[in-house]
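Hi,

Apologies if this is the wrong queue. I'm a grad student, and the batch job for LicD/FKTN/FKRP nucleotidyltransferase domain-containing protein from Flavobacterium rivulicola produced an output file that my downstream script rejects. I'm not sure whether the problem is my script or the file. Here is the sequence I used:
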Amino acid sequence: MGYAIKLTGRNKKNAESLLHEVTLLLEKFKVNYALEGGTLLGIYRENRLLPWDSDVDISILSEELLKMDEVYKELHKSNYRIRIRTFEANDSPFQKGMTRLIKIRKKYFFGLLKGNVCLEIFIKFTDKEHVYWKVADKTMMAPKKFYENYTQIEFLNKHYTIPLLTEEYLTHKYGDWKKPNKNWNASTDELSILKN
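Support response: The file is valid. Your script probably expects a header line. Output copied below for reference.
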Protein backbone atom coordinates (compact mmCIF):
# COMPACT_ATOMS: atom_id res chain seq x y z
CA MET A 1 0.00 0.00 0.00
CA GLY A 2 1.27 3.43 -0.84
CA TYR A 3 4.25 2.32 -2.94
CA ALA A 4 5.50 4.67 -5.65
CA ILE A 5 4.83 2.24 -8.49
CA LYS A 6 1.91 1.20 -10.65
CA LEU A 7 1.05 -2.33 -11.78
CA THR A 8 1.75 -1.76 -15.46
CA GLY A 9 4.34 -3.18 -17.84
CA ARG A 10 7.05 -5.17 -16.10
CA ASN A 11 5.56 -4.42 -12.66
CA LYS A 12 2.28 -5.99 -13.78
CA LYS A 13 4.03 -9.18 -14.91
CA ASN A 14 6.06 -9.31 -11.70
CA ALA A 15 2.91 -8.79 -9.61
CA GLU A 16 1.08 -11.60 -11.42
CA SER A 17 4.06 -13.90 -10.91
CA LEU A 18 4.43 -12.97 -7.23
CA LEU A 19 0.74 -13.62 -6.57
CA HIS A 20 0.89 -16.94 -8.41
CA GLU A 21 4.04 -18.23 -6.70
CA VAL A 22 3.22 -17.13 -3.15
CA THR A 23 -0.32 -18.51 -3.22
CA LEU A 24 0.99 -21.83 -4.60
CA LEU A 25 3.22 -22.07 -1.53
CA LEU A 26 0.37 -21.18 0.81
CA GLU A 27 -1.73 -23.89 -0.81
CA LYS A 28 1.13 -26.41 -0.59
CA PHE A 29 1.33 -25.93 3.17
CA LYS A 30 -2.45 -25.68 3.60
CA VAL A 31 -2.47 -22.04 4.71
CA ASN A 32 -5.97 -20.73 4.06
CA TYR A 33 -5.90 -17.31 2.41
CA ALA A 34 -8.16 -15.02 0.39
CA LEU A 35 -7.50 -12.31 -2.14
CA GLU A 36 -7.85 -8.92 -0.50
CA GLY A 37 -8.31 -5.22 -1.25
CA GLY A 38 -7.52 -3.92 -4.71
CA THR A 39 -6.29 -7.34 -5.81
CA LEU A 40 -9.67 -8.91 -5.05
CA LEU A 41 -11.51 -5.96 -6.57
CA GLY A 42 -9.48 -5.92 -9.79
CA ILE A 43 -9.62 -9.65 -10.42
CA TYR A 44 -13.30 -9.94 -9.50
CA ARG A 45 -14.52 -6.87 -11.37
CA GLU A 46 -12.14 -6.69 -14.32
CA ASN A 47 -10.22 -9.99 -14.47
CA ARG A 48 -6.94 -8.11 -14.02
CA LEU A 49 -4.78 -6.44 -11.43
CA LEU A 50 -5.75 -2.78 -11.30
CA PRO A 51 -3.08 -0.86 -13.25
CA TRP A 52 -3.30 2.09 -10.85
CA ASP A 53 -2.75 -0.16 -7.82
CA SER A 54 0.73 -0.31 -6.28
CA ASP A 55 0.92 -3.76 -4.63
CA VAL A 56 -0.73 -7.16 -4.32
CA ASP A 57 -2.92 -7.99 -1.30
CA ILE A 58 -4.09 -11.17 0.34
CA SER A 59 -5.25 -11.92 3.87
CA ILE A 60 -5.15 -14.78 6.34
CA LEU A 61 -6.80 -15.27 9.70
CA SER A 62 -4.40 -15.12 12.64
CA GLU A 63 -4.67 -18.85 13.41
CA GLU A 64 -3.10 -19.57 10.00
CA LEU A 65 0.18 -18.06 11.25
CA LEU A 66 0.88 -21.39 12.97
CA LYS A 67 1.40 -22.92 9.50
CA MET A 68 3.68 -20.19 8.13
CA ASP A 69 7.13 -21.43 9.23
CA GLU A 70 7.41 -23.88 6.32
CA VAL A 71 6.19 -21.18 3.93
CA TYR A 72 8.92 -18.81 5.17
CA LYS A 73 11.59 -21.49 4.63
CA GLU A 74 10.43 -22.13 1.08
CA LEU A 75 10.24 -18.42 0.30
CA HIS A 76 13.81 -17.91 1.53
CA LYS A 77 15.03 -20.83 -0.59
CA SER A 78 13.21 -19.41 -3.62
CA ASN A 79 14.94 -16.04 -3.29
CA TYR A 80 12.20 -14.01 -1.65
CA ARG A 81 12.63 -11.24 0.89
CA ILE A 82 10.22 -11.42 3.85
CA ARG A 83 9.52 -8.62 6.31
CA ILE A 84 7.22 -9.28 9.25
CA ARG A 85 5.56 -6.28 10.89
CA THR A 86 4.23 -6.61 14.43
CA PHE A 87 2.06 -4.51 16.69
CA GLU A 88 4.18 -2.13 18.73
CA ALA A 89 1.66 -1.66 21.54
CA ASN A 90 -1.45 -3.25 23.00
CA ASP A 91 -4.45 -1.89 21.10
CA SER A 92 -7.45 -4.16 21.61
CA PRO A 93 -8.03 -6.57 20.00
CA PHE A 94 -4.33 -6.53 19.03
CA GLN A 95 -1.50 -7.36 21.43
CA LYS A 96 2.05 -6.05 21.33
CA GLY A 97 4.33 -8.38 19.38
CA MET A 98 1.56 -10.07 17.36
CA THR A 99 2.13 -10.26 13.61
CA ARG A 100 0.00 -7.71 11.77
CA LEU A 101 1.46 -7.78 8.25
CA ILE A 102 3.82 -9.87 6.13
CA LYS A 103 5.57 -8.19 3.18
CA ILE A 104 7.07 -10.36 0.46
CA ARG A 105 9.25 -9.27 -2.46
CA LYS A 106 11.46 -11.06 -4.94
CA LYS A 107 15.22 -10.65 -4.40
CA TYR A 108 17.68 -10.04 -7.25
CA PHE A 109 21.47 -9.94 -7.69
CA PHE A 110 22.31 -12.29 -4.82
CA GLY A 111 19.83 -10.59 -2.52
CA LEU A 112 21.34 -7.14 -2.88
CA LEU A 113 18.27 -5.69 -4.61
CA LYS A 114 14.58 -6.11 -3.84
CA GLY A 115 11.84 -6.22 -6.43
CA ASN A 116 9.60 -3.21 -7.04
CA VAL A 117 6.39 -5.14 -6.37
CA CYS A 118 5.35 -6.08 -2.83
CA LEU A 119 2.80 -8.70 -1.86
CA GLU A 120 1.23 -7.89 1.49
CA ILE A 121 -0.46 -10.51 3.66
CA PHE A 122 -2.82 -8.83 6.11
CA ILE A 123 -3.39 -10.76 9.32
CA LYS A 124 -6.99 -10.68 10.51
CA PHE A 125 -8.11 -11.31 14.08
CA THR A 126 -11.57 -12.63 14.97
CA ASP A 127 -13.97 -12.41 17.86
CA LYS A 128 -17.49 -13.84 18.02
CA GLU A 129 -18.99 -11.44 15.48
CA HIS A 130 -16.22 -9.46 13.75
CA VAL A 131 -12.82 -9.60 12.12
CA TYR A 132 -10.22 -6.88 12.73
CA TRP A 133 -6.99 -5.87 10.98
CA LYS A 134 -4.74 -2.84 10.62
CA VAL A 135 -3.95 -0.76 7.55
CA ALA A 136 -1.31 1.84 8.37
CA ASP A 137 -2.57 3.27 11.68
CA LYS A 138 -6.25 2.48 11.07
CA THR A 139 -8.16 -0.42 12.60
CA MET A 140 -10.51 -2.10 10.12
CA MET A 141 -13.53 -4.20 11.01
CA ALA A 142 -15.82 -6.46 9.01
CA PRO A 143 -18.54 -8.95 9.92
CA LYS A 144 -17.18 -12.42 10.56
CA LYS A 145 -19.57 -13.89 7.96
CA PHE A 146 -17.21 -12.80 5.18
CA TYR A 147 -14.54 -15.18 6.55
CA GLU A 148 -16.64 -18.27 7.13
CA ASN A 149 -17.14 -19.54 3.57
CA TYR A 150 -15.00 -19.22 0.46
CA THR A 151 -15.12 -19.95 -3.24
CA GLN A 152 -12.63 -19.83 -6.12
CA ILE A 153 -12.02 -17.46 -8.99
CA GLU A 154 -9.87 -18.21 -12.03
CA PHE A 155 -7.24 -15.70 -13.07
CA LEU A 156 -4.49 -16.40 -15.61
CA ASN A 157 -5.05 -20.15 -15.51
CA LYS A 158 -4.90 -20.44 -11.72
CA HIS A 159 -7.67 -20.64 -9.16
CA TYR A 160 -7.54 -18.23 -6.21
CA THR A 161 -9.57 -18.21 -3.01
CA ILE A 162 -12.06 -15.37 -2.47
CA PRO A 163 -14.89 -14.81 0.03
CA LEU A 164 -18.13 -16.55 -0.94
CA LEU A 165 -19.88 -13.23 -0.25
CA THR A 166 -17.43 -11.27 -2.40
CA GLU A 167 -19.88 -8.67 -3.69
CA GLU A 168 -21.23 -7.97 -0.22
CA TYR A 169 -17.66 -7.77 1.12
CA LEU A 170 -16.61 -5.34 -1.62
CA THR A 171 -19.64 -3.18 -0.84
CA HIS A 172 -18.66 -3.20 2.84
CA LYS A 173 -15.14 -1.99 1.94
CA TYR A 174 -15.74 0.27 -1.05
CA GLY A 175 -19.41 1.17 -1.27
CA ASP A 176 -20.03 1.41 -5.03
CA TRP A 177 -17.24 -0.98 -6.02
CA LYS A 178 -18.53 -1.38 -9.58
CA LYS A 179 -17.37 2.12 -10.49
CA PRO A 180 -13.55 2.43 -10.82
CA ASN A 181 -11.92 4.98 -8.49
CA LYS A 182 -8.26 5.49 -9.35
CA ASN A 183 -7.71 7.85 -6.40
CA TRP A 184 -9.07 5.58 -3.66
CA ASN A 185 -6.98 5.57 -0.46
CA ALA A 186 -7.29 2.76 2.10
CA SER A 187 -6.41 4.93 5.10
CA THR A 188 -9.08 7.53 4.36
CA ASP A 189 -11.69 6.05 2.00
CA GLU A 190 -12.04 2.51 3.34
CA LEU A 191 -15.58 2.05 4.66
CA SER A 192 -14.49 -0.69 7.06
CA ILE A 193 -12.40 1.73 9.15
CA LEU A 194 -13.49 1.29 12.76
CA LYS A 195 -14.80 4.62 14.00
CA ASN A 196 -13.75 5.37 17.58
